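Hi, here's the filled form for the chain we discussed.

Project: internal
Contact: R.S.
Residues: 922
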Amino acid sequence: MAFQKPSHTFTKIHLKGLRTNRINILFLLSFTVFINTLSFAQELPKSSVSIPAKKPIDTTKITAGEIVKLPVNTTETDSTKKDSLKKKEFLTGIVKYRAADYVSMNQKKQKIYMYNEAEVLYEDMEIKAGIIEIDYSKNLVYAGRIKDSTGYSQRPVFTQGENVIEPDSIVFNTETKKAIVFNSKTEQQGFKVYSPITKKENDSVYFMKNSKFTTAEDEEDPEYQFVTSKMKLVPNKKVIVGPTYMEIYGVPTPIALPFAFFPMTQKQTSGIIFPSFGEDTGNDRGYFIQNGGYYFAINDYLDLAVLGDYYTNGSYGLRIENNYAKRYKYRGNVSFRYENLLNSERGFSDFTQSTIYNLRWSHSQDSKANPNARFSASVNLGSSSYYQESVNQLNQSNFLNNTLASSVSYSKTFAGEPQVNLSLTASHSQNTNTGDINLTLPTLQTSIGRVYPFAPKTGSKKGVIQNINFQVTSRGEYSIVTNDSIFGKSEMFDDAKVGMKHSLPITTNFKVFDYFSVSANANLDENWTLKTVKKYYDQTNEEEVSIDQNGFDRFLTYNVGASIGTTIYGMFNFEKEGKDPRIQAIRHVIRPSLSYSITPAFDQYYETYDVVDADGTTSEVEYTRFENSLYGSPSNRYSSSVGLSIGNNLEAKIRAKDSTKTEPEKVFILNNLNFSTAYDLAADSLNISPVRVSGGTQILNNKMSINFGMTLNPYALDSNNNVVNTFNIDNGGSLFRLTSANLTMSYTLSNDSFSGDESAEDSAASRESARSGGRTDDLFGRSEDYADKRLSDQDKNKDKKEEKNDFYNYKMPWSLRLAYSANYNNTQRQNEISSHSLMFSGDVDLSPRWSVGASSGYDFLNQGFTYTQLRFERDLLSWRMNFSWIPFSDRSSWNFFIGIKSSMLSDLKYDQRKRADRSVGN
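And the returned structure, exactly as it came back:
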């Protein structure tokens, strides 16, 4: 029995809460013993049992001396015949042999000697060695090394099929296919084995004595290895070892196993997934078993992993992972996680219980599978608090994201003239802060390809008439707006909306004066709905009454418009005769556009009711029965608006730094700078719309992106901060009043940025973050999954050239990511900065095998650091060690891991962590 540390609740019993579920724990232990008694590791028993025939017991033992012993040649003679029986041939196949120095044959001893770079090829067997001796009288082949003044060289290499052994010497019997191998070295799928004496029983079974095995890259001086007294190796199938202990750089450790089984098959194999053990002190859940379960290798296209967690206070979790793929067809994965979490113990004041779940599904179809039909899915839905409360999943970069989104779509194209497109989409959007959920189950869209009724049968289209075209589109939705608290219940369908919208846009375009492009358009929209509203004023209760009316109804709207635009180019040259300036020219491109649109007032869809106030005054209230329509309501305001927009692009031609290049380089000064506004001719006041300015550019060799925007209002505010029909300049102010502004900058830089050898990084952790809806740039911290350590970039430097010195690296690789954001608001004289923050993330390789990194930020508005994560990783050749630490906030926690990289020995690890106290944030 262990004692807990005293907590802040002095009334709590200071003993581990193991008695609360003692019956369940005893049942679990009994069930575990029962499973271990009756279960089989990787080899399942045969479904049917047959009675084998009785075989005589062979008491003959084969030893090395018996293999090399000269057999007795006998000849049987038939008394009725004078000829003798023919002896069996020594070699059943063609033997090919060669040597660099000499090949000598001794007929008396019936031997062949080969020296220096000797090779023997016989059937599927190949032997390369310094010395090879063939004794065809005894059916033996001996291969060994060459001894010289420097030692031994040209060790034998024995190859049979796909199996390769590199011993000091070997004796092989060509008749029985058996062999004795001395000081052999072999490798199977990264599993490297050294054995002083190996007995090759047949083509696929090896018995080894006092062997050592490891997955280290350095075979001569491995950083770790396992020593076993006996081993059975079946290439590409399995390895079975007896009593085994571990050595680290030749020093024995107390880590030992009575026996072990390692599957070596190259195919998927079902088997038990070994769990991890620990203690959850952050939320008083007691001891736990995590991520234990079973892996089902169903077939070559489909697999399934079922994992579970259990805590001694009664908490538990279930996780199902599935991957499927079919080449040239589709691929995808499904993940479902369910957790029933108990904080503390029942009966205590701080006891809480929560049930959370999360479902993710990703499906993609190969573009070549069906060019006319496509199905795709990206689903991420579940409890709004899942990423905040879950204790055993990837959430470092996801819990700060307040939106979950899903989409499942199917599209079909019907070839023909005109072409018909059909799509069916189900979508989901969820705000994790409020728990609000928007569902469309489903959205149906159909469209007919654009039709040119007056286009010529041959040649290009010219003029207004020939360019007239139209397109018919339809969109129908079943929309549900609900909350996480009632999701999945019948109440979520009470306020569902159904609607359909048909659109017929008609457009044409033509040239005017060769430099101006003119386009004209007319849009016709018809909306269908199955629910309208009827309103009246209740004089008795003095309130407005709204009555929903079910039934089909429709309304029709339309508008017309036209636009004219052109492109103006300006060039300013700095080049002069006899001079070669760095900036050779600046080009300015202006794209002005003038538009005009008319939207009629659809008063026929509006009704009125009278409201009588306490003074007996009657007022009239106007409403439309379509105000709750899915696609909005018709407008009762006539609009005649003129719009103006100006787009700008500024770039420079700069002399190339490389003197061998004859053409100048193009550099963007401003990628875009846009101005837009409008004037409503039909409005009785506030005719001018606010001027909106937006722009963006890239500097520092396109490593820093800058985007900005602002809104300028020409009208002034009254004493109540309401916009009035008076220009701001006439009210004693400036020409425009700045009402809002925003600025964002992002910067990505690394040491490779200066060498021109930069490549995009696409790690497994970033892909998993994107799948969950989180960030992929480490600005919210690097993702970690307690259940799957493959998400760490353990092999990120595997393909890079490393320095000879493992403890010093003069290049010092590093990377830095910055994101700056600022927003200003002054719509009603607030004159405030609504948000102002800087986020950064960086990593530095102190040596080729040491890496440290940090992700953090600073909120200038609230004057505090944002979510911060510190991390370091150590590549221990065959091992990997990492540590991550969240030093402050209500998610303060740390995680330490050290384990073997090889998937074959991945269960040999040490994992310790302190989780965040979830009760702090609740």
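Let me know if anything looks off before we file it.
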